[in-house]
Design goal:
It comes from Araneus ventricosus. Helix content is 51%, strand content 11%. It is built from 9 helices and 4 strands, in the order ββββααααααααα.
Length: 201
C-alpha cells in the first residue's frame, strides 16, 4: 500500500511474525522510518492536502501533461505532484480526446424566456392586475409561442416586485352596523351642498 504526499512517498509493510505496521517516508534520497502513530498522522495530513486542492490551475495542468508526454507514468506524476492518480487519468484522457485541458465553465441552464418576453409579462400583469399566473402563462404562449410554467411567471414577476397582495382584513360588519349605516344614509340623502359644506371629514 502506498500513500502519496507533496514530493514524498510512504509505504506500509507487514512483518511475517507480528502484525506491526511501519512505514517509510522518502524525501529525495533519504528514508525515514515511521511507526503506526506517526504513519497515521502522515496519512491524515496527506488526505487534508488532497482535499484542500479543489481545482487545478492551467499551469499545473500543463506540468502534468508535459511529464506524461515525456514518458513518465501516471503514478510517478501523482507521487511527484501530490495529486490523485484518478485526476491525472481524467486529465490525460481529456487531453487525448480533444487536446484541451482547460476547465469547461458552464453558464448553467439557459433561461426559458427572453428579456423581451419578461417585459411582456410585466406589462400584461400591470394592465390586468387580477390575472393569475396561469392566465399570464397562456397569454404569453398565445403572443410569442413560448411555454412557461406558473412558477416561472412567479419568479419573473417577483424580480420586479410584482406579487399577489391580499387586502388588509377589516372588522366584520354586524347587522346592527348595517342598520345604523342605512339609517344615516337615508337621513342625509336629501342634504344640500350648503349643508354638506359645514361638515368636516
Amino acid at each position: 500500500m502506498q500513500i502519496t504526499g507533496n514530493h514524498q512517498m510512504a509505504r506500509i509493510v507487514r512483518h511475517n511474525d507480528e502484525s506491526v505496521r511501519e512505514g517509510y517516508i522518502r524525501n529525495g534520497g533519504k528514508e525515514v522510518k515511521l511507526f503506526t502513530s506517526a504513519l497515521k498522522a502522515f496519512q491524515c495530513n496527506n488526505r487534508i492536502v488532497m482535499a484542500q486542492r479543489k481545482h487545478l490551475d492551467d499551469f499545473l495542468r500543463g506540468r502534468i501533461i508535459g511529464r506524461l508526454e515525456c514518458g513518465r507514468t501516471q503514478l510517478e506524476v501523482s507521487e511527484e505532484l501530490g495529486i490523485a492518480q484518478s485526476v491525472i487519468s481524467r486529465l490525460w484522457q481529456r487531453f487525448q480526446d480533444d487536446g484541451n485541458v482547460s476547465r469547461c465553465y458552464s453558464t448553467g441552464r439557459p433561461r426559458v424566456t427572453t428579456p423581451k418576453e419578461d417585459r411582456y409579462l410585466a406589462v400584461t400583469a400591470k394592465r390586468n392586475r387580477r390575472s393569475t399566473a396561469s392566465d399570464l402563462s397562456r397569454q404569453l404562449y398565445s403572443a410569442t409561442g413560448t411555454t412557461v410554467s406558473r412558477q416561472t411567471v412567479y419568479r419573473r414577476l417577483g424580480h420586479i416586485c410584482l406579487y399577489a397582495r391580499r387586502p388588509v382584513r377589516c372588522v366584520p360588519l354586524t347587522a346592527t352596523h348595517c342598520r345604523l349605516r342605512l339609517a344615516w344614509s337615508r337621513e342625509h340623502a336629501l342634504w344640500t351642498p350648503q349643508q354638506w359644506s359645514c361638515v368636516m371629514f
